[in-house]
Amino acid sequence: MSDIVGFTNISSQLGLFCLFIRSLFVFVTIFLSDIVGFTDISSQLDPLKVSQMLHRLYTTFDALSNEHKVFKVETIGDAYMAVTNLVADQELNPKP
Predict the structure, then answer these.
(1) CB neighbours of 9 closer than 8 A, spacing ≥ 6?
(2) List of residues 6+ apart from 54 with CB closer than 8 A
(3) What pLDDT band is residue 3 in, cutting at 50, 70 and 90?
(4) Which range scores top for mean pLDDT: 12-26, 41-55, 81-95?
(5) Overall pTM > 0.85
(6) What CA–CA distance (Å, rounded) separates 80 from 59?
(7) Which among 9, 31, 38, 57 could bridge 82 via Cys, Cβ 3.0 to 4.6 Å?
């Protein structure tokens, strides 16, 4: 079930109008990751090493997300957020 909803608030005061499509998703799983001790780790490493570490980690997460049709919501610093059952339905009890 989805419908188009007009959204007006501060954007209307700025002369903008946004449309959002509202949908109902019965089963979703939200994945959040955070690197424990990231602030300490990054303070002891060269910035390039930190960047390379995050690149390797998030490239792997992105590949797995694509493979399993998981929707990547956001990556901010050392945090990664993704949601299942938004791009394609997944089994409720997947086999390992």
Answers:
(1) none
(2) 78
(3) very low
(4) 41-55
(5) no
(6) 11
(7) 31
Helices (H), the chain: 10-13, 38-44, 47-67
The CA R_g of the chain, rounded to the nearest whole Å, is 18
Under a CB-based contact definition with an 8 Å cutoff, are residues 80 and 61 in contact?
yes
CB 46 within 8 Å of CB 59: no
Nearest to 69 by CA among 29, 20, 19: 29
Q: Which amino acid is at 45?
A: L
Q: How confident is the model at residue 49 (pLDDT cuts 50, 70, 90)?
A: very high
Q: Dihedral angle at the C-alpha atoms of 10, 12, 17, 18, nearest 10 degrees?
A: 20
